[in-house]
Amino acid sequence: MNFEGLLSRVGTGMQQSAIRQMGTVAAQNPDIISFAPGYPAPENFPWDEYGAIADDILRARGRDSLQYGPTRGLPALLDEIMALLGRRGIRATRDELMVTTGSQQGLDLLARVFLDPGDVVLVELPSYTGAITAFRNVQATLVGIEQEADGIDLGDLDRKVAQLRLEGRRIKFLYLVPNFQNPTGLLLSLEKRRAVLAWAADNDVLIVEDDPYGDLYFEDAAGAGDTRPIKADDAEGRVVYLSSFSKTLSPAFRVAWITGPAALLGRFETAKQCLDLCTSDFNQQIVLEAVRRGVLDRQMPRLRAYYQQCRTSMEQALAAQLGEAVSWVRPRGGFFLWVTLPAHVHTAAMLPRAMAQGVIYVAGEAFFVNGTGKNTLRLAFSLAPGAKIVEGVGRLATAVREELAAGGVATPVAALR
Amino acid sequence: MNFEGLLSRVGTGMQQSAIRQMGTVAAQNPDIISFAPGYPAPENFPWDEYGAIADDILRARGRDSLQYGPTRGLPALLDEIMALLGRRGIRATRDELMVTTGSQQGLDLLARVFLDPGDVVLVELPSYTGAITAFRNVQATLVGIEQEADGIDLGDLDRKVAQLRLEGRRIKFLYLVPNFQNPTGLLLSLEKRRAVLAWAADNDVLIVEDDPYGDLYFEDAAGAGDTRPIKADDAEGRVVYLSSFSKTLSPAFRVAWITGPAALLGRFETAKQCLDLCTSDFNQQIVLEAVRRGVLDRQMPRLRAYYQQCRTSMEQALAAQLGEAVSWVRPRGGFFLWVTLPAHVHTAAMLPRAMAQGVIYVAGEAFFVNGTGKNTLRLAFSLAPGAKIVEGVGRLATAVREELAAGGVATPVAALR
């Protein structure tokens, strides 16, 4: 049977996620040191507390606790998220909030509710692949905006938008990860946050603010004041804000949330009914109890210190072993360190060498919507324990030296986009 | 800010789920007896066994057990699902299988991978609203095929398809729930299963077989032999088959699966990367252990007997209290009893009367893609305990008698579609 003829345009055009592919490589090769997906370190999970919570939930035998739940999310969890948002400076009512099955679902919801084929989404160069894929899968046009050391280049934003307006294109939203951006680790400056919000009002577009890492600042380089969400100063409801418990509690619960104007949240709820009916009620209760019992609050200083140390280990190893060949921006929080190699090196083509050495990363080109970035790569320092970070950077250094010696012009491996 | 102008065509056209809306009504009104959503009875959940399983998983502190998992699903769980499918007569390899976040996600995946705007999907009259919504949200055209007592009307299928071919329409697949259909409870006869498979080959369309209820046959009326999936006899890979643990273990885990030709499963995996990255690894492990430890096998005879008794209670109550005014098809399995009222009664319009009496159902018109079925309603006998079933039917009988006395011509409530 020929299935190709039965596929939709979306089904025909979909692209594999470079991050997910590397996750599969890592899962199948336990000896590989993975700097590829942004996985949190399991060493930090509060196992015993989750055990006690699960035990309490199941002993209580609540009529609703193993049942289908409301599409919006567990009301008590929505209330806790509202309190948590309040501490980030964001006021949200229950009408302005919904639980999502991970933030990826939030991105998919946004794509479906906002984007017709050919609509324009503005993203940074580089930007998060999961968002790029979600927007591309509804056949949106992605236009990339350059970055500076303090985040998105506002001059380039104005130039690109002016050109798009001239072409009569319909710009729907600007997608930003202001805190410790995925993949670059960049922190958007407070001045630029204000400027971007004013720009969005002037140009009548939405801002989609994706913030999984904001609480994971490193105290040697940033504080809570530096990560204040754009949404916190959004008086007119122009910002849709996404965040998640995946990096702080556990990705295995698949509990995240989306907040924005109530009129939009109603649309998101209707869309989510069709995507998965509801997020796991059992997992929502575990997260609810973890917040209520202070597990999340106790985790945060520990996680900040832990990932800061991982970052330092990786930077020291890179400086010692590859300092002459690569450059990077020092991460002030989050999970990622963004590496730039000499212009002629193609990091996707170098990946087989790295895998042969027993280390993986995500080749940077997957994060660029304009075909550039071939000499960049993203290293996640979040998963591998400290000694493995040093060892992994050593393996990477071997691969880079081999690639440089070979002239850095090998053929790229197929399907790594 | 005006959001309407920013919405996509999909975002503008989305419709609320009548079932989900009734679920919200039930959650907000604990005194209401709900015959509306197809929720399993929490009395039957194996709470202690889930507690022991969760405890074991968290004590073991597996590096992967609270982590992001593979998009395809946990390999060990895929193996258990393959064994389970084998007992239903279906041979599937790991390449032909993927875990989904509930079957609703499977339906959404199918919509996105197969359907362009204007493509035709054939569904029964009536059919499951979650599927209807998923297909409509990608702007497919849904064409309804009449039913007979033993399932889909093959004559009507031929007539409709001939007409569609004349019109040059592109038919992508036929969506069927052969076992104890949602909403009618009908069981597709074995003869028709064979005929439908042959028809699909002759007409080069796919069959999407949705089977959440197949194992929940009632031993006084049906057996495993009657529920053999169409997929079991699919030699050429023409059937995509969905099933779930939601009705047998718990909906709160959101663990279901989809199986079909390997070439399609690769597409589904790529699509799922964009929808939610992966289904909760924690929940997949709970389900895995519940299968491994025999919890699922021990549950099945108990659930069959329990829901059979619920069905009997509801039938007896209906016969005693409404026998003169309504008719229904005796369910031989599953969760639903499908009621037809006199032609002039509009069940959506009658719903406020039922709610005033303290009982809810799903008005039948939501299940019809051709605007008919206004005098039908779906009763789920799965959730309310036996005494509540009798009481709820009594409340429904009062509402029906009031409606008949009023002439059955009240204005329908808005937004109940």
* N-to-C span of chain A: 28 Å
Beta strand count of chain A? 15
Our Rg estimate of chain A from Cα atoms comes to 21 Å
Classification by helices and strands of chain A = alpha/beta
Main β-sheet of chain A: number of strands, strand sense, barrel status? 7 strands, mixed
Strand content of chain A: 5-15%
Cross-sheet strand order for the largest sheet of chain A = 2-10-9-8-7-3-4
Helix fraction of chain A by DSSP (H/I, runs of at least 4): 40-55%
The largest interface is: A-B, 85 and 85 residues
Count of alpha and pi helical runs of chain A:
13
Order of helices and strands of chain A: HHEHHEHEHEEEHEHEEEHHHEEHEEEH
How would you describe what is shown here?
The structure is a homodimer of 417-residue chains. Chain A has helices at residues 9-13, 18-28, 47-60, 75-87, 102-114, 129-136, 154-166, 190-203, 262-276, 281-292, 295-322, 347-357, 386-405; strands spanning 33-34, 97-100, 120-124, 141-145, 147-148, 151-152, 171-176, 206-210, 239-244, 256-259, 327-328, 336-340, 359-360, 362-363, 376-380. In chain A, helix 5 (102-114) packs parallel to helix 6, helix 5 packs across helix 9 and helix 12 (347-357) packs across helix 13. By secondary structure, the first copy, chain A, is an alpha/beta fold. Mean pLDDT of chain A is 94; it is low at 411-417. In chain A, the strands form 4 sheets. Chain A has a 7-stranded mixed β-sheet, sandwiched between helices. A 4-stranded antiparallel β-sheet of chain A has the order 11-12-15-14.
